[in-house]
Design goal:
globular
Length: 287
């Protein structure tokens, strides 16, 4: 299964990277508007930065002074949160810095409606920007979603697209789909669908693999991989499924993110396993 993109075009105002100009709301979702049907999660996938505070507010409103998620570590994915079905803005700041201080990045987002979304902060030509993935709903157990967000890795044309799948060993996983790089906000295709149909894990011993592009059903050798026992709980870097059995607890499924990586992040060792610049992280999904 090849993951498609949804075409649209949005721009990022540089002024949002500067200090807020007063009148900010204390709510993480400003103006106390009724939260709409979209469910949004945030993923920190830019290895140039350590933990980030994520601010999320209506683009037509004032900047909020309370993060929607605090101290989002590299390789961490938050849980889904309900958001208003209007254009929103994401501002990421170094964790613990003032809410009125300069941001690391700012992304103007389209209205996100009637679905689950992953907003991934990733490197675009040396600067952080946002990729937006629309996460399809699960229809059965053992399904998972794949997101290819490693823009630095994908700069090598050999890896502009990758295959992914499951097996019991990373050296021989069965390809279940292929994926191109997700789209960035401000480009012609900023929303990429991360499908789940056809992506089915094993009940035990699952190893998720990402490899060079190959035909569905083929046996492939991984560029990077992830054991089921290493999947994170949402909003943390804890690994609750020590036995590696799926489905786990009451979670609906698993989201996988192939991301750029380095051995240390902001000078600090990271628990994310990095293989030649590519890492695969997984997080349990509540939706």
């Amino acid at each position: 299964m090849t993951l498609p993109r949804i075409a649209a075009c949005f721009t990022i105002p540089a002024a949002l990277l500067l200090s807020a100009c007063g009148g900010g709301s204390s709510s993480p979702f400003v103006n106390n508007a009724t939260q709409g049907t979209a469910q949004v999660r945030f993923v920190q996938a830019d290895p140039k930065f350590g933990p980030l505070d994520i601010y999320f507010f209506q683009s037509a409103g004032s900047q909020t002074t309370t993060p929607a998620f605090s101290s989002l570590a590299f390789g961490e994915a938050s849980d889904y949160q309900p958001q208003t079905a209007v254009p929103n803005t994401l501002v990421a700041r170094t964790a613990g810095s003032a809410s009125s201080g300069p941001g690391v990045t700012a992304c103007n987002l389209p209205p996100l409606t009637n679905a689950n979304y992953s907003i991934v902060i990733a490197d675009q030509n040396g600067a952080p920007n946002c990729m937006v993935f629309q996460d399809q709903n699960y229809s059965t157990t053992l399904q998972y979603r794949m997101h290819y967000a490693a823009s630095l890795y994908a700069a090598n044309s050999t890896f502009a697209s990758v295959s992914y799948g499951v097996g019991t060993t990373p050296a021989a996983f069965t390809v279940q789909g292929t994926s191109g790089l997700g789209g960035f906000v401000g480009t012609a295709n900023p929303i990429t669908q991360s499908g789940s149909t056809g992506n089915v894990a094993l009940a035990s011993g699952t190893v998720f693999g990402v490899g060079p592009t190959a035909a569905i059903g083929a046996t492939a050798t991984d560029l990077t991989s992830l054991n089921a026992a290493s999947i994170f709980a949402p909003g943390s870097l804890t690994e609750p499924d020590t036995a590696g059995t799926l489905p786990f607890s009451t979670y609906a499924g698993v989201s996988l993110y192939a991301i750029d990586c380095t051995s240390t992040i902001a000078g600090t060792p990271t628990p994310i396993v990095c293989r030649s610049g590519l890492a695969l992280i997984g997080v349990f999904d509540t939706k």
